[in-house]
Structure formats: structure tokens, C-alpha cells
């Protein structure tokens, strides 16, 4: 098999995952795009393992390691997303602005930051009231 | 065996066809408006990647991919979508201002990677038939426990830490009247539903349990 086919597949998957991480807003869909990124890496690992075929079986063993780490990462990521959703009532990453830079520069720092904090506080209060 | 661009082998044809399925479903994962459908297209994408592993001669990794990714990770993601009350039906998820810059970054990544890879591996052929012997469970197990024991054990510690961390993070906070250990040992604290009514039900259940315990003690 020509070595370019699996490598191209890995490159395409990586770019698609990159687009997903950058363009999606829901935190869980961002986790899905991260899974695509990790799978792009493992496709490359398997392809090079099949190309090199060394004594240590590096490609496939490392693919197993990456799959394990991806499972741990997904579990922890979902736990964090759940905690954020419980505290703030949303899982959308562009509404998590409590630690954000002020939108219109340092001159607007005081007003913008207090407005953001008040908004976050009201959102938290709303979630608490619902609970 | 002579290699040629113009007479692809059967393995190459199958690889390209499954690769088209993979890339198409991955595109749907990142562009579809319905979040649950995105998770289901992720199943198709990861499953077809397992097919690509089989074609590359990595048998054990293909089954592990199906077991862990399709079996566990996607189910976790679906649980996450349900627990965060992701909207069912089309969303305005992708109506963002930074969609065009994201597409430009992805296109730049594709351009750079494809150029470099095609230029570097133009004359390289791999032999999946010779790799089959290394993809079996026996070969993988021998390599894993002969040369990679320390990373393997480290990973088991990492998995344990991630498990404990996920339980601690997603545990419900200490409410009034609920002690730390009574919330920690409840089996349903791990996939805790974030519904507003569930908290009331859970607290009512714990208080009723406490009341039953007190009643039992009073009987004694």
C-alpha cells in the first residue's frame, strides 16, 4: 500500500478536528472534535508502525496507550463540563467569560469586568434558584 | 512486486473507500447542527477508522478501538449530552463569527500537512501483509509486557487517578444535612443527572433514609 494514503487520512482527520475545536461552541462537541484529533494521531501511529515493523511494536503499543489516555481524558472532561453546567446553567464555552479579558480594551476594564461578574452572578443565582 | 500509482491494489481501493466514509462522517461530526446526530456520526467515523486499522494489519488495535471508542467513549459523550440538556433538534451552534477563521486555520493545516507528507513519502510503500504478524493479540501482549511494562503500569495508575478525579469532580456538592460520606458512597453520584427535580428527589431520599435510620435506632 502506498504510504501516502493513511498519512493523508490522518492529515484530513486532523484538520477536520481542528475546525471542530475552533468552530464549535458546545463543550461536549469540542470533546468530540478532540477525539477526532486523537484518532488522526493514532492513524499516523498505526501507519508508521506498519511501515517500520520494529521489534518493540512501537506504533501499535503507543496507539493502545493513546486510546487509554483518550478514555481518561473524556471521562475527566465530561466531569468538568457537568460541574460547569451545574454551576452556571450552560455548557457553551463562549459564555464562560468570568475570567475573560475586557472586550474593549483596558480603558473599559472596570465597567466591563463588573458587568461580566454581575452577569455571571445572576446566571449562577438563576441556576441555584432552578435547583 | 512493482509499485505503481496507476494500478492500485485491492487493499488500497478498500482503504480509500473506507477513508471516504471516515472523512465524510468526520465532516458531519463537526458541521451538523444537531448535537445528538453529531455524536452518532462520531460512531460511524470511529468505527470506519477501526476498519482502516484492520486494513493496515493492526487487528488488536482495531478491536480495542471499537470496544473503547465506540463502546465507551461515545456512550460517555451521549450521557454528557443528555446530562447537560443539549437541545434536541437543530441548534444555532455553528452560527458564530469565528467560523471563517476556523475554516481558514483548518485549510492551512490541510495545505501544510498534505504538501509536506506527499513530498516526503512519495516513494514509500508499506506492506500491510507483513504487518499482520505484529498486529495479533499475542504479538502485542508480548511487546507490551516485555518492553513496555513501566508505561503500562503508569497508565493503570493514571486511569485510577482519572476515575477518582471524575467521581470527585462530578459529585454533588455538600448540601445542608448531607454529610460528606453519605453523598460520596451513593452509587448514583457518578452519572448524576443535572435535572432540577433530581436534586429534590435525591435529597428527599437521603433525608428519608436518615429518618428510617433514626427510627431503627429508636426501635433498638
Briefly say what this structure is.
The complex is a heterodimer of chains A (131) and B (220). With 131 residues, chain A is mainly α.
Based on the model shown, name its key terms:
heterodimer; A: 131 residues; mainly alpha; Helix Hairpins; 2 domains; 4 helices; elongated; disordered C terminus; B: 220 residues; Four Helix Bundle (Hemerythrin (Met), subunit A); 9 helices
- Separation of the first and last Cα atoms of chain A: 58 Å
The CATH architecture of the largest domain in chain B can be given as: Up-down Bundle
Query: What structural category arises from helix and sheet content of chain B?
Result: mainly alpha
Would you give the CATH topology of the largest domain in chain A? Answer: Helix Hairpins
What is the gyration radius of chain A calculated from CA atoms?
Answer: 21 Å
Count of helices of chain A? 4
Would you write up a description of this structure?
The complex is a heterodimer of chains A (131) and B (220). Helices cover 76% and strands 0% of the residues of chain A. In chain A, α1 (4-23) packs antiparallel against α2 (27-52) and α2 packs antiparallel against α3 (58-88). Chain A folds into two domains: 4-96, Helix Hairpins; 99-131. Chain A has four helices and no strands. Chain A has 131 residues and is mainly alpha-helical. With 220 residues, chain B is an all-alpha fold. Chain B has two domains: 9-147, Up-down Bundle (Four Helix Bundle (Hemerythrin (Met), subunit A)); 148-220, no CATH class. In chain B, 73% of the residues lie in helices and 0% in strands. Chain B contains nine helices and no strands. Chain B has helices spanning 10-31, 35-55, 59-83, 99-120, 128-135, 137-147, 149-170, 180-184, 196-219. In chain B, α1 packs antiparallel against α2 (35-55).
Amino acid at each position: 500500500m502506498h504510504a501516502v494514503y493513511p498519512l493523508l487520512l490522518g492529515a484530513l482527520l486532523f484538520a477536520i478536528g481542528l475546525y471542530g475545536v475552533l468552530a464549535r461552541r458546545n463543550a461536549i462537541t469540542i470533546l468530540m472534535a478532540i477525539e477526532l484529533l486523537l484518532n488522526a494521531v493514532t492513524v499516523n501511529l498505526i501507519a508508521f508502525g506498519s511501515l517500520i515493523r520494529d521489534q518493540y511494536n512501537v506504533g501499535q503499543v503507543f496507539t493502545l496507550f493513546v486510546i487509554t489516555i483518550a478514555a481518561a481524558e473524556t471521562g475527566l472532561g465530561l466531569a468538568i463540563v457537568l460541574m460547569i453546567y451545574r454551576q452556571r446553567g450552560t455548557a457553551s464555552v463562549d459564555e464562560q467569560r468570568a475570567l475573560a479579558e475586557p472586550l474593549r480594551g483596558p480603558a473599559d476594564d472596570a465597567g466591563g469586568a463588573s458587568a461580566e461578574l454581575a452577569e455571571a452572578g445572576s446566571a449562577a443565582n438563576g441556576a441555584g434558584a432552578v435547583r | 512486486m512493482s509499485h505503481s500509482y496507476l494500478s492500485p491494489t485491492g487493499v488500497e481501493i478498500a482503504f480509500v473507500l473506507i477513508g471516504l466514509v471516515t472523512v465524510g462522517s468526520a465532516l458531519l461530526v463537526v458541521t451538523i447542527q444537531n448535537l445528538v446526530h453529531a455524536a452518532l456520526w462520531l460512531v460511524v467515523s470511529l468505527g470506519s477508522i477501526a476498519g482502516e486499522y484492520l486494513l493496515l494489519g493492526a487487528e488488536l488495535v482495531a478491536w480495542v478501538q471499537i470496544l473503547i471508542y465506540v463502546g465507551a467513549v461515545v456512550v460517555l459523550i451521549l450521557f454528557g449530552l443528555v446530562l447537560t440538556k443539549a437541545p434536541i433538534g437543530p441548534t444555532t451552534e455553528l452560527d458564530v463569527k469565528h467560523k471563517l477563521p476556523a475554516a481558514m486555520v483548518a485549510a492551512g493545516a490541510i495545505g501544510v500537512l498534505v504538501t509536506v507528507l506527499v513530498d516526503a513519502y512519495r516513494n514509500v510503500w508499506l506492506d500491510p501483509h507483513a504487518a499482520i504478524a505484529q498486529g495479533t493479540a499475542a504479538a502485542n501482549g508480548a511487546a507490551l509486557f516485555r518492553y513496555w511494562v513501566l508505561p503500562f503500569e503508569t497508565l493503570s495508575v493514571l486511569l485510577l487517578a482519572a476515575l477518582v478525579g471524575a467521581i470527585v469532580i462530578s459529585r454533588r456538592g455538600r448540601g445542608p444535612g448531607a454529610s460528606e460520606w453519605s453523598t460520596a458512597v451513593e452509587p448514583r453520584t457518578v452519572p448524576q443527572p443535572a435535572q432540577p427535580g433530581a436534586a429534590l428527589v435525591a435529597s428527599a431520599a437521603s433525608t428519608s433514609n436518615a429518618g428510617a435510620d433514626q427510627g431503627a435506632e429508636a426501635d433498638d
